[in-house]
Each structure stands twice: as C-alpha cells, then as structure tokens.
C-alpha cells in the first residue's frame, strides 16, 4: 500500500480543487493530439446580435455558431463551429503571440478541407497575403492576449457550391483571452 505524506496529500487536494474550479467556470483540461494537457474554455463573440451573420464555409445566423478556445504551451487556438452542418474553422495564434494567421476550414459534409497559409512577411494590406492563388481576403489578426478578428474574411474560389467560393468571416472580434491567464 502506498502511503502519502501530508505534503503530497495537500498537493493532491489543491490539484483537485483547481480542476473542479476550471470545470465549474466552463474551462478544463483536456489531452491534445500531440499528447499533453491543454487548457480549454468557451470563447466569446463581441458582436452577436440578431442582425449578425457569420460565414463558416457559408452564411449562417449567429445562434448556430460557437467558439471553443484552447491553450497549450502559451499558444492559443480557436475552433469556430457551426452546429447544423458541422463546418469547423481552426486558427492558431502566431508563434510571436500577435500578428497574422491563416487557418483550416473543414466542411461537415464530406470533410473537405480548405487551408489558408499566410506568406512570410505578408501584411493585411496586400492584395493576396496567402500562399494559395485561389485565395483572397484578409488573414486572421491575433493579439498576444487572445483577441482575434477577421477583417474582410478569408475566401477561396471553388466549384463546390452555389456561391463559387467558401468563406470564413466573423463580425467584430472573437475573444479567446478568458482562459489564457489561468
């Protein structure tokens, strides 16, 4: 039988209280695909009124779109999901903490993926800051605190769909700063 001293028991109790506190606040700890713990919480849209339309591959009303944020090793990722179709867009904060980023849109039906990668040294003012020729719009702009915005959005021409493009655009900002400080 393993016997814990008072010091070990105290540490175990603190860990249990912190884990329960995170779970109660909507945050938590989860395993990542690279193997390791990541802090996870619900993000917030700064614009989410009845007139807002969000693009996650195609146009949706705000009430079917959510954002889940994770932090691992000081880097924050945002997963923006649409509940009816299963469309999902993932973007990750740049290594520098703030700056421009792309992301990957996965369509719920069929799992087709569209990835936007920002060219090295690109700026948001450039006509095409992305590596892909069929891509246009503005990259996601991250702050080091976990706020991100989409500007005019990300677009990619495609023959799959009525609009001739897939698009990711969220009005206002997405706030993923809530869990990054612990």
Architecture overview:
This protein is mainly beta and 182 residues long. Helix content is 10%, strand content 40%. The chain has one helix and 17 strands. Strands 1-2-6-7-8-10-11 form a seven-stranded antiparallel beta sheet. A five-stranded antiparallel beta sheet has the order 3-17-14-13-9, with no helix packed on it. The chain is globular. The two termini are 35 Å apart. The N terminus is likely disordered.
Largest beta-sheet characterization: 7 strands, antiparallel
Q: Give the number of DSSP strands.
A: 17
* Cα separation of the termini: 35 Å
User: How much helix is in the residues?
Assistant: 10-25%
**Low-pLDDT segments, ≥5 res:** 1-27, 29-33
Average of the residue pLDDT scores: 79
- Helix-strand pattern: HEEEEEEEEEEEEEEEEE
Computed over alpha carbons, the radius of gyration is 19 Å
From the spread of the alpha carbons, the general shape counts as globular
- Spatial order of strands in the largest sheet: 1-2-6-7-8-10-11
Q: Number of helical segments? A: 1
The portion of residues forming beta strands comes to 35-45%
Strand-pairing-aware structural class: mainly beta
Task: Sum up the structure in keywords.
single chain; 182 residues; seven-stranded antiparallel sheet; five-stranded antiparallel sheet
């Amino acid at each position: 039988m393993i016997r814990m001293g008072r010091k070990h028991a105290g540490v175990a109790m603190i860990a249990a209280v912190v884990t329960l506190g995170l779970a109660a606040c909507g945050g938590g700890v989860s395993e990542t695909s690279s193997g390791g713990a990541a802090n996870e919480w619900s993000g917030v849209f700064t614009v989410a009124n009845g007139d807002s339309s969000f693009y996650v591959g195609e146009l949706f009303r705000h009430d079917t779109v959510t954002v889940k944020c994770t932090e691992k090793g000081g880097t924050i990722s945002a997963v923006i999901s649409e509940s009816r179709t299963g469309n999902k867009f993932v973007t990750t904060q740049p290594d520098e903490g703030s700056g421009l980023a792309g992301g990957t849109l996965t369509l719920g039906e069929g799992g087709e993926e569209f990835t936007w990668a920002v060219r090295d040294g690109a700026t948001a003012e450039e006509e095409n800051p992305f590596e892909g020729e069929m891509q246009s719009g503005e990259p996601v702009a991250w702050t080091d605190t976990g706020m991100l915005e989409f500007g005019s959005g990300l677009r990619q021409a495609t023959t799959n769909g009525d609009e001739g493009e897939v698009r990711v655009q969220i009005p206002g900002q997405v706030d993923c700063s809530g869990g990054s400080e612990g």
